[in-house]
Amino acid sequence: MSADKLWITWAGMALLALIPILIQVFELPVFYTEMFCRIMILALAAMSLDLILGFGGMVSFGHAVYLGIGSYTVGIFSFYEIDNGFIQFPATLVICGIFALLIGMMSLRTSGVYFIMITLAFAQMVFFLGISLEEFGGDDGMPVYRSEFGGWIDLNDPLSFYYFVFAILLLLLFLCHRIIHSRFGMVLQGCKSNEARMQALGFPTYRYKLAAFVISGMICGIAGALFANWNEFVSPAIMHWTRSGDLLIMVILGGMGTLFGPVLGTVLFLLLEEYLPEWMDALLFPGAGEHWMGVMGPLLILLVLFARGGIHSLLGRLRIRNG
Length: 323
Hints:
By secondary structure, this protein is mainly alpha-helical. The chain has one domain (3-322): ABC transporter involved in vitamin B12 uptake, BtuC, CATH 1.10.3470. It has twelve helices and two strands; from the N terminus they run H-H-H-H-H-E-H-H-H-E-H-H-H-H. It has helices at 3-25, 31-53, 64-79, 85-107, 113-132, 158-180, 183-200, 205-231, 241-254, 261-283, 293-306, 310-322; strands spanning 142-143, 233-234. It has a two-stranded antiparallel ribbon with strand order 1-2. It is globular and about 60 Å long.
C-alpha cells in the first residue's frame, strides 16, 4: 500500500474505534452501535472476497456461502447448548476451511465464467441444504445465543461486542496485509496478471490459488460466526446468491485490490441501504424507497466510469490533489 493511501486505512480504523465514544458524546441511539457492528462484520466478508478477487483475479459469485457456514456452525453449537466461543470459533475456521478446500479443488480447475457459475452452484447447493435442515429451523431459521468466553469478554454488552468485532477486523486486516506483501501474495498477484507466465517460471499456481481460496473462506466464516452472534439468529437467507452479489458490490464500490477499500465500500453500501429508501420516500413519493436498488445501480455505474479503483482510489487522488 502506497504511503499516500495508507492514511485512509489509519483514518478509517481510528474513526471506527471512536464510533461508540462519538455516539455517547452526541447522545445518539444505541442503534448506531449495532449498525456499525453489522458494517464491520460484513466488511470482513467483503475483505475476504477481495483477497481472491482483487489480488487473485478469482470472481466468486458464491462467497456468501462461507458467511452461512460460519453462522450455522455457531447456531448448531448453540442449539446443542455449546456456547463456548473458544470451541465455536476454532470449529468455524476448520469447517469453513474444509468446505473452501473442497469447493476450491473443483472450482479452480475452471476459469472465467465457468468459475463464476460453479461457485454460484456450490453456494446454492449449500443454501438449499440449509432450507432442508428442518431440525435447525429450515427456511425459518433458528435463534442463537451469543458466544461465551469464560468471563474474558461479555458479548451481551453492546460496547464489549463492538470492540470485540473491531479487534477481529483489525487483526485480520493486518493478517491480510502481511499475506499480500509476502512472497505468497506476490505469486498470487502474478497469477492474476499472467498465470501462464507464472507457471512457466515454475510456480504451482493451482496450489497458491487454492491456498488463497481456503484462507478467504476461513476469514469469511469468522465474519459469519460474528454475524450469528450479532443477529442472535441464523437462517439460509444469509447465504443466498443475492448476498454474494452484495459482497461483490461492496468490493467494487470500495476498490478491488486495496484491502481497506472493501471496508469503505461496505460502509457506503450499508448506509445507502439504510437511508436511501427514506430519502427517496421523502423526496419522491411514499413507497419509492422500495426501489432503492434502482438508484444504487446507476450510482455504481457512475463510480465505475468516473472513479476507477473505487472510493479508496478516489480518496487517494483527492489527497494528492489537495496536498
